[in-house]
Amino acid sequence: MVTKRETPDQTNRAGTAPTASDSGGRRPRLLLLDGHSMAFRAFFALPVENFGTSTGQSTNAIYGFASMLVKLLREEEPTHVAVAWDLSGPTFRDEEYEGYKGGRSETPPEFPAQVPLTQDLMRLIGVANLSAPGYEADDVIATLAHQGGEAGMEVLIASGDRDAFQLVTGDCTVLYPGRSLSDLKRMTPEAVEDKYGVPPERYRDLAALVGEKADNLPGVPGVGPKTAAKWITKFGSLDELVAHADELTGKAGQNFRDHLDDVLRNMRLNLLANDVELETGVGDLTLGEADRAGVDALFDNLEFASNLRERLYGVINVDEAAAQGESGAAEGFEVDLTVPGTGGLTAWLAEHAAPEALTTAAPAGLALEATWGRGTGRVDALAISVPSGAAAAVDPTALDAADTEALAAFLADPDRPKVVHEYKGALLALGAHGWDLAGTRCDTALAAYLAQPGQRRFDLPDLVRRYLGRELEEESTGQTQLTLDVEGSDEGPQHALAVRAAATRDLAAVLVAELDKRGGSQLLTDLELPLVDVLAKMERAGIAADLPYLEELQAEFAAAARQAEEQAHEVVKKDGVEAFNLGSPKQLQKVLFEDLGLPRTKKIKTGYTTDASALAWLATQTDHELPALLLRHRDQTKLRTTVEGLIKTVADDGRIHTTFNQTVAATGRLSSTDPNLQNIPVRTDVGRRIRRAFVVGEGYQELMTADYSQIELRIMAHLSGEQALIDAFNSGYDFHAQMAAQVFGIGVEEVDGEARSKIKAMSYGLAYGLSAYGLSQQLDIQPDEARRLMDDYFAEFGGVRDYLQAVVEQARRDGYTETTLGRRRYLPDLTSDNRQRREMAERMALNAPIQGSAADIIKVAMLKVDAALSASDLASRVLLQVHDELVVEVAPGEREEVEKLVTHEMGSAYDLRVPLAVSVGGGPNWHDAAH
């Protein structure tokens, strides 16, 4: 099934120029994008530090480029689209002028690798990428614009290069970047003339006189755009101006005569070639069908959120059949719906959902119209679909006593197998009504995550589309409902919910079969599904918060931020600088680099960066107090924001109920949201104070923390079998000091803090797939020094190097990596022709087995600890999991037994070649319980 935008078919397979008649009466519209220009625009508009994958691949340029393209496709509705890219290597302009584009700032290292990935995305969505050896992207655009104009097409050019203004006509408009990423100014003939004082056909003349700094083309000294426009207007053209050069008076006139050769050279180089030989003509530039599976895979690898994906799918032509590997036929779900009246549900369940009617191979599908979060929820409607096709939909709050009892018995019966989408949400929502849910054999969201952990979305409509080739579409009916996309269907919300239950049941069968093939069934049944019950209990319990203390912290951090701001204003006042907005990068640049004349930082599109690392660098390069005050202001503001967020989430019971997510991290690690309790700052003393706000609750004695020591490195030792690494763990010395001593060839007692820190960063970096460049950035050393450090490390621990190389090669052969418990991550890009995608997959292959095994082991430990607490009839309970740490609320009199139990169960979660070391601490709050 192919979903298309509402635009006429513009395809002209012969590649000849399209006409209005080809367009069903609508005039064809050609959209041309200057690839590098727009990608650079996106790169500098979005902070690179906020856009990147867990493996270190920067993504801000790709994300911004895709966002701009979505906006252009939606607002301009082009019939034909292409992106022109510059090629490396000289052009005819370089051959004429050796200094062409010389002196440009060095390209940020995070940018180049994003270009091929952006080009890959264009290919996947059906947009042509075009280049020509010896020419620039501008020349390709000029050629296509010329062809489009001759064909009677309306032409739009998205470019930040002003040379494109010479192409502007009544039928060709340049979309020129404004202040923000989404701001594109329409440079029509009138707009060009209003801004520069000359019509578009004379803009090239003006540029030749003024010069172009970005291209290293010097203009006439003292001649700006206004003077140039006045001369051109007076004489009509540059040719005429040259012919009357002797008539120009004053210093500017003399400068023109002195630099005439430069002007004429600029004029030649500014000319955009409109006759470049291209393999593709404008008639072949219709927006093709997108490879949805390919786009999904790329976006998953880039770790993009689903909102950009959905916006993109809204403006391109999506080949659903290709994405699903299906014929594209949207078959319906078998639903024989009953909406039982009072007393009717009991009879329906007895007839259709008795224990003998359901098996693991033929379970009931369960769907809820519900909300949940922060440890609770609400059910508004519920539907059950059984293998026979019978379905029932009810409002649980409108049932009589007998039906309520029958429904509760069905839900809680472990012998009546069920499948559900988002099992934990169902547990929380049903639990709020006093109902248990047992017998769940499959959570379709979890199953899909185990099958394809690199995906970023596991909503039911998308999974049904991917795996069943059918459509479930969201409708706005006051609440979010799902309806079957069947022509002529006018069923109500009860039928929609029953369809969802049937879809969940059918989807579960396909996913379970997929997991059987991929070896993930045991992970689902023995690890992830049982863990849902544990996480739901943790979310219901929450963790007690000291609200008055949080409010004190909020006021303290706010006051500290204000004080830093006041001190900053006082400091610059001594230099004659007026008060400024500390949160404005533009004002910061002016104060730091113009008013105060401090050393300039890394150059960016809008000037010089004022990010945290730049301010920290400035603080070391100058005695001026301002950089340190700015850092303090940012730190205190961030801490205040963190505390404000925590205060807002304190529930009526005085506890904070976070939400744990199992399907976010591709490695299997849990994440925490609303609020994120895995991100409470702990690296600074003031940050650690926030942990003091998490306290033992009423009726309990203390909080206990238990965490694994260096679990990733222990797993690396286990997987690599490197004996020297294993011996270092068993030596009895501080592990990192022992490692440093071996690498640097010194005694353990001679290892200082710097040497220990370097080896610690190296060890963990290898476990996370860190490159030499990444290590250099982390340690603030040169890449060559980082590479030497890695070489020395591998010389001592060769088994680690061999293991890391073998991991990638094995994954390339198998197509996936695997953890100690068999969790797979499929990486098809390991054999990609695109070097950036291949290297990104290689980094994933390096860190997935180690991080994934650590995630598996802590999950096993959670199950073992929870089961042991229950079996021992202890009242103590697990409240939080933070990466490798568990936080337990200890009941009075149970401390000694709980510590022994937790240490044993965590330590025996998996049998490694080195022991799983567990550290335990206790106290009245989370901070004091640290060890």
Task: Please give a structural write-up.
This protein has about 950 residues and is an alpha/beta fold. It folds into five domains: about 1-190 and about 275-300, 3-Layer(aba) Sandwich (Rossmann fold); about 330-540, 2-Layer Sandwich (Nucleotidyltransferase, domain 5), CATH 3.30.420; about 545-655, Taq DNA Polymerase, Chain T, domain 4; about 685-710 and about 855-925, Alpha-Beta Plaits (2-Layer Sandwich); about 710-850, Orthogonal Bundle (DNA polymerase, domain 1). Helices cover about 45% and strands about 15% of the residues. It contains 35 helices and 32 strands. The strands form ten sheets. It has a six-stranded mixed β-sheet. A six-stranded mixed β-sheet has the order 12-15-14-13-16-17, with helices on both faces. Strands 30-31-27-32 form a four-stranded antiparallel β-sheet. The two termini are about 60 Å apart. Residues about 1-15, about 320-330 and about 475-490 have low confidence and may be disordered.
Q: Return the CATH architecture of the largest domain.
A: 3-Layer(aba) Sandwich
Q: From the alpha carbons, calculate the radius of gyration and give it in angstroms.
A: 32 Å
Strand order of the largest sheet: 4-3-2-5-6-7
Number-wise, the strands total 32
| Global morphology | globular
Which sheet architecture does the biggest sheet show?
A: 6 strands, mixed
Strand content: 5-15%
Average pLDDT: 88
Low-confidence stretches: 1-15, 322-330, 475-490
Structural class: alpha/beta
CATH class of the largest domain: Alpha Beta
What is the count of structural domains? 5
Within the CATH hierarchy, at the fold level, what is the topology of the largest domain?
Rossmann fold
Per DSSP, the total helix count is 35
> What is the CA-CA span between the terminal residues?
58 Å
Considering DSSP H and I runs of 4 or more, what fraction of the residues is helical?
A: 40-55%
CATH homology superfamily of the largest domain: 5'-nuclease
